[in-house]
Task: structure prediction
Amino acid sequence: MGELSLRFEGQPDAWRAVLAICGAVARRGGRAHLVGGCVRDALLGLSVHDFDLEVFGVAPDDLESLLRESYEVDLVGEAFGVLKLRGLPIDVALPRREAKVGRGHRAFHVLSDPQMSFSNAAARRDFTINAIAWEPLRGELVDPFDGVADLRGRILRHTSPRFVEDPLRVLRGMQLASRFELMPAAETVALARTIDLEGLAVERIFEEWRKLLLLGPRPSLGLRFLRAGGWLRHFPELEDLVGCPQDPRWHPEGCVWRHTLHVLDAFAGARTGDAIDDLVVGLACLCHDLGKPPTTKWSEQRWRSLGHEAAGEEPSRRLMARLGVPQRHVDDVVRLVLEHLRPEQLFRAGAGDVAVRRLARRVQRIDRLVRLAVADARGRPPLPDTGEEAAIWLLERARSLEVEAAAPKPLVLGRHLIAAGLSPGPHFRALLDRCFEAQLDGAFQDTAGGVLFLGSLLREGAAAGEEIAAGAGGPAGSGERGPSP
Result:
């Protein structure tokens, strides 16, 4: 893994502060170690963005006083939990003893103990790869649970039997397995099977799933750990995918669960780095086939799942509620789930501009939909990727119509009706809907054309005008769904 070094461009102030704190602690007769993720990431040659220091041999009040001599400090947590240096990515803490006093992630009695040995302090950490410490002044690596060996072997292993005290650790193991491409030790999987969800706050659950989707190169490994550890029972919408059959001509990879894992890995290999876009598309990849279990039937000598797109809406909403997905993202994900087959369908049909505009109206973001469709197509090994041609075609069409990253916006607005001499009222909605439907059908391309269309609509005659004012809707037989939520 190369030499351990925490010096890198971009954090010189933080690094100088780390060394200064370690020196000040040593002068007080104590010892400060860098611990946890910053050591793990440095050993892997990854960039370190945050530093966690654990201080031994200095009393709580002395440590706080020492830090306040040079830094602005925020005290967080109970029983002298963590001292955060304001303006620097550095957290400083004392080793602490924890006693489980109830159910859930926060049900611990915490007491700091600066005289605790490092081995005992490290035993409360979740995994061996997170229980490695480095003493910067001496350049000494402290590794009581052989975390370096597990890091080399890409093994996810718990540090001690205390692992069972915090159910969040199972979900943390899920995202760590994905991020660092780790295989769980058999004894860790067995221990995970004995742990219940214990009413974890959905905010904490979501944070681990967010890391799985945004940071891991192989989300499949995290989900495999979840299944092996018996935790799919807490996410029944995903558990239902296991063993759900598919037509092997189109899905030689096997059941819907296996397909979903391949789709997520394909998505991970094509992230854009936009956190919101990646989260929405990643969730859509996770949810896109949740409608298959209730719709899959043996018909015409093969497995079919007709209507699984629409059937996927409710289980997608249920799963995202369990995951704690913020409500502002849920509808965006559902739109993609409902339309995930449309790019290929429109491409094969040689659809025109009207169909593309209407799709953009329903899905809001064609660029996100295309990313889902491409990942879906790539999630069927060993079949070749068949989604690229349709994706390029749809993106080019959407771009030319200026609806690639946004739904079409109505060109005719209420102010245009007022300018035409109409008084505001319920009839406005019917007129605006008629104009928008015509716009989607290509009757006009700009506001000036929309105003002309409105004028022609009003000139249809008094009888037509009364019909519209009474609330007549869009063109009969259009078959178009209403605006997406």
Observations:
- The first strand starts at residue 31 and ends at 35.
